[in-house]
């Protein structure tokens, strides 16, 4: 039995301060809402080499308005280089912010699983496996999902519906999973 453990973030804790770089060179705080929204959803994807990630980002584009309607801003990020992101954007038809250059240290801070490429054909750097974080207006993690494979991710339509339920003040829905 292995004694290697990764530290994972917990629901209800402050989302870590992580600065990321956008294609235009602008540096943003990963978990800070923008565009008049008070919540933020951070989608960590594996990178250009992953067709499942491309499908997931495309699906996110198709339902992003469901998140906007309930005040949730969106950003996606991977460990890809600026050049890899530019090449990936040629395949994608999306219109939400995507950052690049997530470092291994930042991946560890987020508690993500990290993989090495199987070959140079896949990619040229360690990459994060999928992660999704929803940060509430207080800057705390409301929802998180961390996977070690691209096949296990939250259904975005179900998530959008769940966030609409959570954000409805009549439901008084707390952060779940707080018992440690």
Automatic annotation (TrEMBL):
PROSITE patterns in UniProt: THIOREDOXIN_2 (PS51352)
Annotated Thioredoxin domain residues: 9-171
Gene Ontology MF term list: antioxidant activity; oxidoreductase activity
InterPro entries named among the record's database cross-references: AhpC/TSA, Thioredoxin-like_sf, Thioredoxin_domain
Protein origin, superkingdom: Bacteria
Gene3D superfamilies: Glutaredoxin (3.40.30.10)
Protein name: Peroxiredoxin
Native source organism of the sequence: Psychrobacter fozii
């Amino acid at each position: 039995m292995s004694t290697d453990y990764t530290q994972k973030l917990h629901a209800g804790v402050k989302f870590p301060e992580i600065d990321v770089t956008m294609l235009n060179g602008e540096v943003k705080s990963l978990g800070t809402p923008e565009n008049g929204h008070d919540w933020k959803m951070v989608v960590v994807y594996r990178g250009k080499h992953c067709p499942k990630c491309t499908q997931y980002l495309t699906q996110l584009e198709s339902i992003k308005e469901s998140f906007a309607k309930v005040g949730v801003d969106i950003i996606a990020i991977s460990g890809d280089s600026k050049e890899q992101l530019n090449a990936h954007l040629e395949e994608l038809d999306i219109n939400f912010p995507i950052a690049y250059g997530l470092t291994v240290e930042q991946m560890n801070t987020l508690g993500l699983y990290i993989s090495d490429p199987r070959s140079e054909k896949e990619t040229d750097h360690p990459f994060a496996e999928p992660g999704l974080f929803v940060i509430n207006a207080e800057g705390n993690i409301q929802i998180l999902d961390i996977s070690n494979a691209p096949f296990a991710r939250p259904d975005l339509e179900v998530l959008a519906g769940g966030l609409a339920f959570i954000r409805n003040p009549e439901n008084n829905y707390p952060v779940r999973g707080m018992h440690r």
